[in-house]
Amino acid sequence: MTVDNDPTDDRTYDSTLYVQQAVALLGLPVSPAQLSAVIEEFERVRAIAQTVLDWPLPDDLEAAPRFEP
After folding, report:
1. Which of 22, 25, 30, 37 is least enclosed, having the fewest CB within 10 Å?
2. Is residue 21 part of a domain?
């Protein structure tokens, strides 16, 4: 069974699962307290990112060929 862990899809994304898998994959020595804190931060970042992702954009919007401040 595969898990679709898309952070933009509330039906499938699980911060706990993502962080646990990333820690295991990278072989990081993380204590349970640290793991909880990292998961909490991922949830905060996800909430902030969702605000940006929810911003409505017009269908005819085109990317600028180069950035000019």
Report:
1. 25
2. yes
Note the helical H segments in the chain: 15-26, 32-53
d(CA 69, CA 66) in angstroms, rounded, equals: 10
> What is the average pLDDT score of the chain?
86
11-27 pLDDT tens trace: 678 999 999 999 999 99
Collapse the DSSP code of 11 into the 3-class scheme (helix H, G, I; strand E, B; otherwise coil) and give the result: coil
Q: Is residue 1 part of a domain?
A: no
Whole domain around residue 34: which residue ranges? Answer: 15-53
- In order of 30, 35, 37, the CA distances from 27 in angstroms are 9, 13, 18
